[in-house]
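Ticket opened by: R.M.
Priority: normal
Category: complex prediction / small molecule

The reporter submitted a protein together with zinc ion and asked that the result be attached to this ticket for the collaborator who will pick it up next week. Submitted input follows.
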Amino acid sequence: MRMERSHLIVIGLALALLAPGPRSARADAPPPVTLTSVRSWTAPANTRVVFDFSSPVDAVMPDSGNAVQLVIRVSAPGIVPGTNAPGVLAVRDSTVDTVFTSFDPQGAVLALHMPTGTMFRAFRLAGGDDKPFRIVVDVARPTAQVEEDRRLASVAAEKRRDRVRLVVIDPGHGGDDTGAKGPGGTLEKNVTLAVGRDLAEELNKVPGVRAMLTRDGDFFIPLRQRYRIAEKAHADLFISIHCNSSHRRGHGSGTEVYFLSLKGAEDQADQDLADVENAADLVGGVPPQAEDDVVGVLYNVRRNAALERSQLLAESLLDHVSSELRVESRGIKQAGFAVLKSVEFPSVLVETAFINNPREVRMLRDPTFQRQLGKQLASGVVAYFEKAGTPVGVAPDTLRSAAQAVRGQ
Ligand SMILES: [Zn+2]
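Result attached by the on-call engineer:
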């Protein structure tokens, strides 16, 4: 009897498992897709709206056009909104009014409303690393390109009129492209902006020098556009600010300054770093059609002259940073950074310190250190102009040490 009863129990269990009850149906079904968040970034030239999904989805949407309302139909049965995906996102920045999301059994409808008919581009970005699958819409600010070109032309005209040198400072990353991450939520894009602003402020104190930032806010700029801004403003120097990270480089510490290599880096670690920095366009999101000639290389006299001066600038910056800050020098290096490809001016990329080194991230976060770094880099710029045979005036107090150091050589 006991045997039979246990048999019955086993058969009963087996039937229960085989039966297509609601429980087993739930276990077999893939988890529903989540629209995890809806975000917007306001940049001078455009407003970017980003939809994050827990997994890739099919969507019907125009690639580009001119519209007052843009509707994207997402096909994903059972899709649910996440906590950061509000039904209505009020952007109201004069480029985009509101973003509406609604759900039905077949999927979701994402709708952007603009105050006037506006040019837009919509594209998908595959997920990877810690990035989700995204649908991105860039809405051009009406007249932004004309205004930006006019602004840069007036910077160039003032520079000519006042006979000053123009240094363009490029805070790396921005917006959706956070750059490297350090402990405690420290993001490279925030450190680079803080240091960039300090450097600009210091340089603007030097008679005969003017500084301008490629971005003075939290938004993304494609790599090629960063040096194009500098070209349009007729820059004399271009300095891109970044933070290193030992996730990609072993246990690291210290500062290094790069200039462009035409044939790639000799050291694999340097090439890896350039690859990571060059991936910013993929992380930050550039429509695939826009990535055409990022890696164009021009072998000519201007290129070589710019490279020679870039090396001199890199040396001058590193000398001043490593002599007065508590950060060791890792030296001057070369690699194929996309952001350094202009032939119009010397350009360098400063890897300030390691954002995931516990000691260095404390410094990178510290406004006092950021200011010191800005001062030292500014001293390096002044020293560069001296060495290049085109000296500039030196402000009385902030850069006295730099001037003395240069005169002493
Ligand atoms: Zn970077």
